[in-house]
Design brief:
The chain is 63% helix and 4% strand. The chain is mainly alpha-helical. The longest helix is centred in the middle third of the chain and has 22 residues. It has a single domain, classed as Four Helix Bundle (Hemerythrin (Met), subunit A), CATH 1.20.120. It is globular, with a radius of gyration of 15 Å. It has a two-stranded antiparallel ribbon with strand order 1-2. It starts with 7 loop residues before the first helix and ends in a 7-residue tail after the last helix.
């Protein structure tokens, strides 16, 4: 398969500023991360009604695993310098609208993990919506994974 052309300039930029790095061999298999995304989403869904904050964070983690699986399948991984923002930039540039909710989930997860006010909590409705958004991201990743090849 040829290099995935959409978002190529953004991936090159992220590599040049060391927000992404190349990986090879077994480290370039996205399937285990996508499997982890499915498991984590199941956990998030199971606790959404009793622990919405944790469910939201887990829903985000599931979406991040799915997004990272796509990059991994391309022989790419985020660095500590790029982190979660690099994942968002890379998947949005390459895969577009199916991943637009990833940015919202990432930012809201940060608000919950690093609250500025004591009232920064989630509720059941928001957690349930986060699970649904994460499920959409994971489903999109499921469809894309086998179509990807190394970026390099």
């Amino acid at each position: 398969m040829a290099r995935w052309p959409r978002g190529e300039a953004e991936i090159e930029r992220l590599l040049s500023v060391r927000h992404l790095q190349a990986v090879t061999g077994a480290a370039a298999n996205g399937r285990p991360l996508l499997d982890q995304a499915h498991r984590t989403l199941g956990t998030a869904a199971s606790i959404a009604s009793t622990d919405p904050d944790s469910a939201f964070v887990l829903a985000y983690d599931a979406a991040r695993y799915a997004a990272t699986a796509l990059l991994t399948q391309q022989g790419l991984r985020p660095t500590t310098a790029g982190g979660h923002v690099a994942v968002e930039s890379a998947i949005r540039a390459q895969f577009g609208d199916g991943f637009r909710n990833f940015g919202f989930l990432r930012r809201r997860r940060n608000e919950l993990e690093y609250p500025r006010a004591a009232t920064a909590t989630s509720d059941v409705e928001e957690a349930t919506e986060a699970v649904a958004q994460s499920r959409s991201i994971i489903e999109a990743a499921d469809q894309l994974l086998s179509n990807l090849s190394f970026f390099g």
